[in-house]
Amino acid sequence: MLSLIRPAIVSMVFFTLLLGLAYPLLVTGVAQAAFPHQANGSLVVSGGKVVGSELIGQNFAGAQYLHPRPSAAGSDGYDASASSGSNLGPLNEDLAKRVKESADALRAESTGGTIPADAVTTSGSGLDPHISPAFALLQAERIAKARGVEPRLIKGLIVVRTEGRTIGVLGQPRVNVLETNLALDARYPVGQPPAP
After folding, report:
1. Could you tell me which residue, 175 or 78, shows the higher pLDDT?
2. Largest CB tally within 10 Å, which of 127, 130, 138, 162?
């Protein structure tokens, strides 16, 4: 019996050290050396302070900011500890009511145009940091009015901040809400004369 227990214990200790200690340390070391920004959470720093992550959405409610897509993560949305979608089916009355309310609010604040799907639907995680360029441009007039600048300037900044498909083929063009809002604050601060 002892001859069977000893190899089992040696194997357990060996694989615990290999897979529980050596491999994670190796992967962490390679990630820190090759991709330090991503390995540390893709943090966004503004004014010497961490203000968020490129990968985690957050809510912006002021008229001077790009608004993110709706979130079902947590009771107030954008709660990383409650990351999930709403799990409501397309025929659910609560979902239909929320989508209608979101669409009506967007129609009231914009000058028209088609409302993109991401403007009224949540992402699977509830933490999507990006919106479509169409949704961002739909908000340009509201942002321009709140910042006291011409809409074409806001639209131009949104176009410049639009990210293309990953490696040219994956995903869709997108606008990072946090990074674009920081660019808006830097270029067209609220209550300041417009930058040339």
Report:
1. 175
2. 130
* Distance of alpha carbon 100 from the chain centroid: 23
Do residue 58 and residue 136 come from a single domain?
Answer: yes
Is residue 34 domain-shared with residue 66, that is, in the same domain? no
Residue 166, classed as helix, strand or coil, is strand
Is residue 174 within 8 A of residue 133, CB to CB? The reply is yes
Whether 69 and 75 have beta carbons less than 8 Å apart is answered as: no
Residue 163 in 3-state DSSP?
strand
CA distance 138 to 106: 8
Q: Are 40 and 61 in contact (CB under 8 A)?
A: no
- Which of 15-19, 30-34, 112-116 has the weakest average pLDDT? 112-116
91 and 177: one domain? yes
Distance between CA atoms of residues 141 and 1, nearest Å: 79
Q: Identify which of 71, 174, 61, 76 has the alpha carbon closest to the alpha carbon of residue 127.
A: 71
Which residue range is the domain that position 52 belongs to?
42-187
End-to-end Cα separation, the chain, in angstroms: 84
Report d(CA 43, CA 35) in Å as an integer: 13
Contact present, 155 and 140 (Cβ < 8 Å): yes
Give how far Cα 132 sits from Cα of 92, 128, 175, 193, Å: 25, 11, 6, 29
Domain tally, the chain: 2
Q: Residue 195: pLDDT above 60?
A: no
